[in-house]
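Now for today's protein:

——
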Amino acid sequence: MSTVAPASRTIETITVYVSGAVNKPGVYALPIGSRVADAVSMAGGTLPIADMERINLAARLADEDHIAVPEKGATPVAATSTPLHKAAQPTRVPPVK
């Protein structure tokens, strides 16, 4: 009996976590190239208390991103904790070669 290695798979989706002031917080699969606005839409849109001025809806998403939609008047997240959608400008570390 021979074993065949699985064909290399092209990742066509990313998985992101949307939380905070949205209608349906949760984990969502989106196409590569999606933006924060797409993830917020998948989460059922924002609640009336969402502070949309504090997130960048145009930022591109990456696999494993966390989009935290803040409430109006909420204290901004401290720089040492997970920022809003990674400060809406994610910092990515290049892979080690």
In short: The CA atoms of residues 35 and 60 lie 4 Å apart. The chain has one helix and three strands. The first strand starts at residue 13 and ends at 20.
